[in-house]
Write a structure and sequence with these properties.
Blueprint: E1 4-6, E2 19-23, H1 24-35, H2 42-61, H3 67-78, E3 81-89, E4 92-100, H4 101-110, H5 119-133, E5 137-143, E6 152-158, E7 190-192, E8 205-209, H6 210-228, H7 235-257, H8 259-264, H9 272-280, H10 282-285, E9 290-297, E10 301-307, H11 310-317, H12 328-342, H13 354-361, E11 367-373, E12 382-388
Antiparallel strand pairs: 1-7, 2-8, 3-4, 4-6, 5-6, 9-10, 10-12, 11-12
Helix pairs in contact: 1-2, 1-4, 1-7, 2-5, 2-6, 3-5, 6-7, 6-11, 7-12, 9-12
Length: 396
């Protein structure tokens, strides 16, 4: 029997204040969504958001040591990969990663890229170096394993000016992420002990700032119609929800197939409702907010209430009033969870790949979700409703 902790008893919230935990499959899908949409400079959006978040956190989390020590600490803290070497030559800094979880996840689920994909790491390095040195740096990834390189190599040089488009005000980190267990959930099983250090079996997980994800998504949502035209105004929410579909599927499908889950957790989950409750109880531990199931019919409907989700809180903390619901990750994640527990068999096929993803998400009975209430619009909570594309029977 594997060592376990029971949700709601000895399990503890894992993310540090202001951070969220996502699988690197979601990070890869999120990056691909922002960088693969028409004329939008998604790489710049990702880089700026990561740099600003790292800079804002630098005073609280920085090691205060040398550049070499700081780079190693920051990469380890954010779980972006493994540092092979850090070379400092005057004002120039070169960082080589022997492994990049973003690059590895991109290769595994989407295949080779034509350009470097570690823009998050580049931005984190830029912000961390500025926090340490008190001057701005421009960081470029000059070699990437996702684009055929033997390592992920970054070069940093002092910049002529600061990082562009910094937010005018910075929200307190503690208000972004809700560090409480979801109310209304009675977890039916025991959860893996990996929650103690912010990981789950089956995948690698990063620990990045909620500001990064929320700001990058918002900038993308604003920039897409600006670059492509007003008729593309509704495209960003679709693309961002699809990134959540991909990320949750690839990360959680591997969790459900892990030895820790199949031997220690799954035997206690006898129904679809129990399986969903166990997965939903992970949300708070990963820093996604307070999730609670309001209504569940396994074949026809799931209504989820989300309080203090980082997407809505980012806008509230800055006094930004959106024109519509804003929780695109949460919306995609709710649909993905229903598809994992209610639609497709993800535990017995030989591989978790895009073919399996398509068989689940292109199924006529697969679920999609809409957000009917949103805290960013002044509601008491965000309400997300998932229904199948083609119901198995009439809902009563």
């Amino acid at each position: 029997m594997k060592t376990m902790v029971v949700a709601g008893e000895s399990a503890r919230v894992v993310p540090a204040v202001g951070t969220v935990v996502h699988s690197h499959y979601y990070d890869a899908a999120f990056h691909r969504a922002l960088t693969g949409s028409g004329r939008v400079d998604g790489r710049a959006i990702v880089y700026r958001a990561a740099a600003d978040a790292a800079l804002a956190a630098g005073g609280q989390e920085g090691s205060g040591g040398s550049i070499e020590e700081s780079v190693v600490d920051d990469i380890a803290r954010t779980r972006l990969g493994e540092v092979d070497e850090v070379l400092v030559q005057g004002d120039r800094v070169e960082v080589v990663l022997r492994s990049s979880h973003h690059a590895a996840a991109r290769l595994e689920i989407f295949g080779p890229a034509t350009t470097p994909v570690c823009d998050v790491a580049a931005g984190v390095l830029a912000g961390a170096l500025e926090a340490l040195a008190g001057r701005t740096y421009t960081v470029e990834e000059v070699e990437c394993m996702a684009a055929g390189g033997s390592a992920c190599r970054f070069r940093a040089v002092p910049a002529a000016s600061g990082i562009d488009e910094r937010p005018s005000e910075s929200a307190p980190h503690g208000r972004i992420t809700a560090a409480t267990r979801p109310s209304g959930i009675s977890a039916a099983g025991a959860l893996p002990s990996g929650l103690r250090d912010g990981t789950l079996p089956g995948s690698t997980y990063g620990r990045l700032w909620s500001d990064f994800y929320a700001r990058a998504a918002l900038d993308f949502e604003v920039e897409l119609p600006r670059s492509m035209g007003p008729k593309y105004g509704n495209v960003a929410p679709v693309v961002l929800a699809e990134a959540a579909h991909q990320g949750i599927f690839h990360g959680f499908a591997r969790l459900l197939r892990s030895v820790e889950w199949t031997e220690s957790v799954s035997p206690a989950l006898s129904t679809t409702a129990h399986r969903l409750e166990a997965l939903v109880s992970l949300a708070a531990h990963l820093g996604w907010g307070e999730w609670s199931i309001a209504l569940l019919d396994p074949d026809r409907r799931l209504t989820m209430h989300v309080r203090s989700g980082y997407e809505a809180m980012y806008r509230l903390d800055r006094g930004l009033r959106p024109t519509g619901p804003t929780c695109h990750f949460a919306r995609g994640a709710v649909a993905a969870l229903m598809n994992l527990v209610s639609v497709g068999d993800v535990q017995t096929p030989p591989d978790v790949d895009q073919s399996l993803y398509n068989s689940v998400f292109r199924n006529p009975h697969s679920f999609r979700a809409i957000e009917t209430r949103c805290q960013a619009l002044g509601d008491a909570y965000c309400e997300i409703v998932a229904n199948p594309l083609s119901p198995r029977g009439r809902f009563s």
